[in-house]
UniProtKB/TrEMBL annotation:
The keyword Disulfide bond applies. Residues 53-85 are annotated as: Disordered. It comes from the Eukaryota. It comes from Triticum turgidum subsp. durum. This is CP12 domain-containing protein.
């Protein structure tokens, strides 16, 4: 039986940071017949990778400063001016 995750790449879910939740039922279904199969291991590896990607995305959002992000995109605005002494 072919894995349901075969056609799914990390890039499909990583931007949404919710891919781990979406891939988990697919992994459970893949493992329902043979929990010791290579396909089952690959399916849970995929869930683990997606979970890690989601965690890293959440951490990146926590560490970001909204004003710093704004100034990276709009350095010419008054709010982003810096002065040399």
């Amino acid at each position: 039986m072919a894995s349901a995750l075969t056609n799914v790449s990390l890039s499909t879910f990583a931007p949404t940071a919710r891919g781990d939740v979406l891939a988990r039922p697919q992994a459970q279904e893949t493992c329902s017949e043979d929990a010791a199969s290579g396909e089952c291991a690959a399916a849970w590896d995929e869930v683990e990778e997606l979970s890690a990607a989601a965690s890293h995305a959440r951490d990146k959002l926590k560490d970001s400063d909204p004003l710093e992000n704004y100034c990276k995109e709009n350095p010419e605005t008054d709010e982003c001016r810096t002065y040399d002494s």
